[in-house]
Write a structure and sequence with these properties.
By secondary structure, the protein is an alpha/beta fold. Helix content is 36%, strand content 15%. It is built from twelve helices and 16 strands. The protein has an eight-stranded parallel β-sheet. Helix 3 links the parallel strand 4 and strand 5. It is globular and about 55 Å long. The N terminus is likely disordered.
């Protein structure tokens, strides 16, 4: 069965035709009941919520950054089948993978940037075929994918792989004409490859873009230009920024906007101004209170503040990353945040960082924030929360 699946991935011209024949077993939930699968459609915004496969709804999801960087198809199928069985609707998967030195790379990579030019990796073992399979499998399991197209950080080739070749600093990337031309060329490569897929939830400009110490207008202009470019390639799928949701004096009307780190604009991001960009369909925000110098209770304030900005601008907002590290009272802490989302806001969805499970190949791509499938905490924070979000009555 997996040999046929690999054939479907590698032979791009017959990719969709073979997908049905090579599809894994029917998708079932944790009680072995086959899931009710609606006819797949492209996800769209509906007021402050999302219409997923024809139904306007709240949703829960997870982060699986590694899904398109797995070498073994069995690992992809295991993860996605369990995510579907959880009741999750969306998974966030890195849509980038760049190296400057392919001969030294041990990771899957989709693009090479170096002094000789820009190249895309079509090697079926460690190239774009790995993401092909992830997208195909997501279609089968009914999971939508958010695909960030670059990374603020160095892992798997982010902004640094562009500045290594085209010069300048990290902060200069956003205005570096040569780097932006290469970045747009990569965007075109990915968007045109998957723009007909119903598995794509949205294209995301970057994972957690920062321009520390910059005027926030730099990233706002960059986000406006880049999102408009993506819309010129694909005007059906949604586009998001992928930022952490940093607030500034623009949102000084919000209660508890005290000018401290998360509200200072230091990271060069203005959540409210970016959400107002016409070609940005919804807002994203992340939260790691312990890393940012706040207590866990403050997270409830952060959630409500972003909900208020979304309400003001009439757009959905998505809590795209949240986590408590292993060893802490994850259930007690995160359940309070989920209660805030469910009972006190119209936040359209939330994605936990990150999904963990025992993959058939034995690989372990997780950090100490992973929440493992099948545990009691997973049942409460993932399965039960996903059901509660799906059952929540849609309101503005």
């Amino acid at each position: 069965m997996y040999a046929l699946c690999q054939l479907a991935v590698y032979a791009v011209v017959v990719f969709q035709a073979l997908l049905v024949d090579c599809a894994p077993t029917p998708v079932k939930d944790a009680k072995n009941v086959e899931l009710d699968r609606r006819a797949p459609t492209i996800t769209t915004v509906d007021a402050r919520l999302f219409k997923i496969d024809g139904r306007t709804q709240y949703f829960a999801g997870t982060n699986t950054w590694w899904l398109g960087h797995l070498y073994d198809n069995r690992d992809v199928d295991t993860a996605l089948s369990q995510i579907a069985a959880t009741g999750y609707k969306v998974a966030r998967v890195w849509g980038f993978g760049t190296t400057n030195n392919p001969s030294q790379s041990t990771d899957v990579y989709y693009q090479v940037l170096n002094s000789t030019g820009q190249y895309f990796n079509y090697n079926p073992e460690n190239g774009i075929a790995r993401l092909d399979y992830a997208v195909a499998a997501a279609e089968h399991y009914g999971i939508k994918l958010i695909l960030p197209l670059n990374n603020n950080f160095d892992a798997l080739g982010g902004i640094n792989t562009y500045t290594n070749v085209y010069g300048g600093t990290h902060n200069g990337f956003f205005t570096n004409a040569a780097a932006q031309a290469a970045y747009k060329n990569y965007i075109k490569f990915i968007v045109q490859r998957y723009k007909s897929s119903t598995a794509i939830f949205s294209w995301e400009l970057c994972n957690e873009p920062r321009c520390s110490g910059c005027d926030p207008s730099i990233i706002t202009r960059w986000a406006s230009d880049t999102s408009a470019y993506i819309k010129s390639l694909d005007n059906l799928h949604m586009v998001s920024l992928g930022d952490e949701g940093w607030l500034t004096s623009t949102s000084s009307y919000l209660p508890n906007n005290d000018g401290s780190y998360a509200y200072s604009g230091y990271e060069g991001v203005d959540f409210e101004k970016n959400l107002a960009i016409p070609t940005i369909d919804y807002g994203t925000f992340h939260v790691y209170a312990d890393q940012w110098g706040y207590n866990y209770t403050w997270t409830n304030t952060w959630i409500q503040q972003h909900n208020a900005v979304g309400r003001k601008l009439g757009k959905p907002v998505l809590l795209e990353e949240y986590a408590v590290s292993d060893g802490e009272d994850r259930l007690g802490i995160e359940s309070q945040w989920q209660d805030t989302i469910l009972g006190k806001t119209s936040v359209g969805g939330d994605l936990m960082w990150q999904f963990g499970t025992n993959l058939p190949s034995g690989i372990n791509p997780y950090d100490n924030y992973a929440l493992y499938y099948g545990t009691s905490d997973y049942q409460a924070l993932a399965s039960e929360h996903a059901l509660a979000m799906t059952q929540k009555t849609p309101t503005a």
